[in-house]
């Protein structure tokens, strides 16, 4: 009997995925004329049932599904209420775990549905249904568990860690945006052209000091400014109505300072959202120190976006899914990012290599929001004096 070779199906590009498919299909149909086209061969689920479930080692799970086997089955168990055999319209019904695996493969690689179809031995339309079903289930069932507003105690612990790591008191999050490539939509495609000239939708995220998201807003068109996206988000409504943070003010240089976020110059200056002093002006020494301290803490969200896209590469390449599904896919990836981080699943630093090969470099938003809030100015000035005092010790 022909022995089955051991493969490591690393998620690093379509060419290797195609090679893996051909190897699997060739094994499953060794008696078939080798000149037969791959898409004409009978489909087989042998790879999933006999190789993945029986033979995959821990590193295979991490490389192919971006998480440990234990976390994968934990997620499957949480998704059961929405992704179950009795609720699916797929015929024949696929096991829950296989449908989740199909979706994760798409999110991790962004390879064509045709490739995934042959790899898992299912139809292309079934792949589409799996991706849609699983992404919606992740957002519905896992978001409340893994991506939500922290509790009062959670905010307090985050503020303490920001203070220890970057000497930034009362900070509980960093906000920024990331453009996700998409295919040009059939309507209003100009609205989705960003400053770099490619079509995108925008992910607005807020992360804590550990690089986990606690708020995301997805789906705005690529031409939208950061300040506009923020003002149209639930985060803005909650914050301006003073429902975002508990009242835990601290006196800093004679000024009461409550919990706050930090962001780039493209955001409006608010009591609850600080940004750097404009470098177009002549800055004082303590203002320069403020900008430096803020930039040090702000770097955590750049690292987070990098890890997010390196792990779930559907966010790195042009996404050809429907415009209606893409925001759900992006949110699902942010949730899965938190799942992996919370469960301490490994992260292969080699995945970050794809970031240096980005076909779609992030646009630089040069527009600075000039909204003036006198109370926010007072808070920023107090912190700048506070940071200067730390430098002089």
Describe it.
By secondary structure, this protein is of the alpha/beta class. The protein contains 13 helices and 7 strands. The protein has helices at residues 14-28, 46-55, 58-65, 69-79, 96-109, 113-120, 124-146, 152-166, 226-231, 234-240, 285-311, 326-342, 374-392; strands at residues 171-181, 200-207, 213-221, 250-252, 255-257, 260-262, 273-274. It has a 5-stranded mixed sheet with strand order 3-2-1-6-7. α5 packs across α7 (124-146), α6 (113-120) crosses α7 (124-146) and α11 (285-311) crosses α13 (374-392). Mean pLDDT is 87; it is low at 1-42.
Which range does the strand content fall in? 5-15%
Order the strands across the largest sheet as they lie in space.
3-2-1-6-7
The coarse silhouette is elongated
Rg: 24 Å
Q: What share of residues is helical?
A: 40-55%
Note the topology.
Layout: H1 14-28, H2 46-55, H3 58-65, H4 69-79, H5 96-109, H6 113-120, H7 124-146, H8 152-166, E1 171-181, E2 200-207, E3 213-221, H9 226-231, H10 234-240, E4 250-252, E5 255-257, E6 260-262, E7 273-274, H11 285-311, H12 326-342, H13 374-392
Helix pairs in contact: 1-6, 5-7, 6-7, 7-12, 11-13
């Amino acid at each position: 009997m022909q022995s089955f070779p051991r493969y490591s199906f690393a998620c690093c590009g379509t060419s290797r995925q195609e090679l893996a498919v051909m190897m699997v299909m060739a094994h499953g149909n060794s008696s078939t004329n080798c000149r037969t086209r791959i898409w004409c061969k009978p489909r087989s689920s042998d790879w999933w049932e006999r190789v993945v479930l029986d033979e995959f080692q821990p590193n295979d799970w991490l490389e192919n599904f971006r998480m440990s086997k234990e976390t994968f089955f934990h997620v499957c168990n949480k998704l059961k209420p929405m992704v179950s055999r009795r609720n699916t319209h797929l015929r024949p019904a696929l096991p829950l775990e296989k449908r989740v695996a199909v979706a994760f493969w798409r999110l991790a690689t962004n390879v064509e549905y045709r490739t995934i179809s042959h790899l898992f031995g299912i139809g292309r339309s079934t792949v589409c249904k799996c991706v849609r079903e699983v992404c919606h289930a992740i957002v519905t069932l896992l978001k409340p568990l893994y991506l939500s507003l922290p509790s009062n105690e959670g905010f307090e612990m985050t503020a303490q860690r920001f203070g220890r790591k970057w000497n930034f008191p009362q900070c509980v999050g960093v906000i920024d945006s990331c453009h996700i490539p998409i295919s040009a939509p059939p309507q209003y495609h100009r609205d989705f052209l960003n400053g770099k000239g490619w079509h995108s939708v925008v992910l607005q995220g807020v992360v804590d000091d550990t690089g986990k998201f606690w708020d995301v807003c997805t789906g705005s068109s690529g031409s939208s400014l950061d300040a506009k996206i923020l003002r149209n988000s639930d985060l803005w409504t909650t914050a301006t109505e003073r429902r975002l943070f508990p009242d835990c003010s601290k006196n800093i240089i004679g000024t009461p300072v409550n919990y706050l976020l930090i962001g780039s110059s493209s955001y409006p200056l608010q009591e609850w959202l600080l940004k750097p002093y404009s470098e177009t002006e002549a800055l004082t020494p303590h203002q320069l120190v403020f900008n430096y301290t803020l930039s040090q803490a702000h770097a955590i969200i750049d690292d987070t976006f990098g890890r997010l896209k390196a792990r779930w590469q559907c966010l790195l390449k042009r996404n050809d899914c429907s415009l209606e599904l893409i925001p759900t896919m992006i949110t699902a990836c942010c949730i899965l990012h938190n799942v992996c981080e919370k469960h301490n699943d490994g992260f292969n630093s080699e995945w970050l290599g794809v970031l240096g090969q980005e076909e779609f470099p992030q646009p630089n938003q040069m527009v600075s929001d000039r909204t003036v809030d006198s109370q926010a100015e007072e808070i920023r000035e107090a912190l700048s004096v506070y940071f200067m005092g730390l430098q002089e010790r």
